[in-house]
Structure formats: structure tokens, C-alpha cells
Amino acid sequence: MTTNSPPILFLVNPNTPPINIRTNNPPTPYHINLFELNLGFDTHKLYNITFDSNHTVQTLLTSSPDHADCWFIDTRILTVDANFPIIGLHIEWGPNTPATIHLCVNNICLVYQVIHAPYVCPSLSVYLSNPGYRFVGVGIKAGIEKLRSDYGVHVANFVDLRSVAAEKLHDRELLRSTGIKMLAERVLGKVIEKPVSVAMSRWDSPWLNDDQVKYATLDAYAAFEIGRRLYTNLV
């Protein structure tokens, strides 16, 4: 089968040292701009999503196992020299089961509509079960358990960022029902303003709308960036 592999734009130089931009100033909201690359395919969509005019993430939206395979191959190449790479992970639910899996590495993101996939992507299982990867997120233990029971997909090495933040920031209160919004304010100095209309929307829709794609990307990107800063002591 011939597939149209979505291009990957390397918009961030992986050799550039990360910069800690957190200050003591009050947290500020993310300003998010979305641009869809009109590829004309019915199997996937590709977006450039820019945060605060200075950081662009390329997001692949798909339910196609073939195109998810391409993303997993590209990210393995991107992280081949990384020691225990950090991968942001977020899950959104349908009525009774995980509907979308959001993954972010550096400046590329996958929003995989697993609920509409014709079969469980083998590369997804291999990727998530790799013990050499550190998947980071906030409050998604139930989603991970349902991925295993409903789809047979096992996440081998998941870290809830609340425990890492509590240790790094010497604040045990962060273990108490803190969400990614609070961690973003504490670690990144950013406010995640996710409208209720998006948070409560139908994540099991055949195609996500632009607002869903924006915030799906933001959730995964914020998890990645919080994890990166905590693990590299940039807090």
C-alpha cells in the first residue's frame, strides 16, 4: 500500500540549549494561532500551531494506522540520540472509552483518533510500551488503564507530573488534585484557558474541529514542556 507520509517540519533546532523563561511575573495566557496545511487528503490533516508567536508545533490529526506509523518512525529518528526521551501524553474520552491520544515530542504532535481507527496500530503498542521512553502527563491514570483494557495498549513508563513537581518545587500540596493548568502556571508561568465548550465537546467526533485540535495540541505540548523543565531543573 502506498501512503502519503505527512511531512515533518523541524522548526526547533534540537541542539539549541533549552532556555528557562519562567519569571516571578504573574502567569500569562497562551496566545494560540492555528494554520491548517490544506493537503486535500481524507486520511489525515496537518496543522502548524503557534504559541505566543515564538514557538510552532506541527500537529498530525489522523485515525489512520498508516499515518500514525509514519509519525512514530519520525519521532524515533528525532529522539534516537536522546537519553530517556520525554514525551508529553494526554488522553481525551468518548462516552465510555478513550477517544483520542495526544503525544508531543519537541515540536511535533500526534492527535490519534484511536476510537475511529480500523484496528489497533501495532506501532502505537510498540511505542507506548517502550521502557526507554518517559511518558509524562497529569491525571490520566484512568485513561491509561482503559487504553489497556479497551485497546490492549500498554504504557510501560508513565510519570504523573504532579509527583515530580511536588519533589522539585518542594510543595506537597501539588499532589492534591492539581491539574495541568496549575502546573503550567507554576512551572511555565503560563495560563491554560481551555473553554468549557471545548473541554466538554465530543472528542469521539469523526473529525475534530480547529478548537479541539488547538487544545489537544496544547495539553500534550504543555505536558512535554513541564516535564522537560522539571527533569532538567529549569524551574
TrEMBL record:
Any one GO biological process: nucleobase-containing compound metabolic process
A GO term, aspect molecular function: nucleic acid binding
Protein name in UniProt: 3'-5' exonuclease domain-containing protein
Pfam families linked to this entry: DNA_pol_A_exo1
Organism: Trifolium subterraneum (Subterranean clover)
Keyword Plastid: no
A GO CC annotation given for this chain: cytoplasm
Keywords in alphabetical order: Hydrolase, Nuclease
Residue ranges of domain 3'-5' exonuclease in the record: 82-230
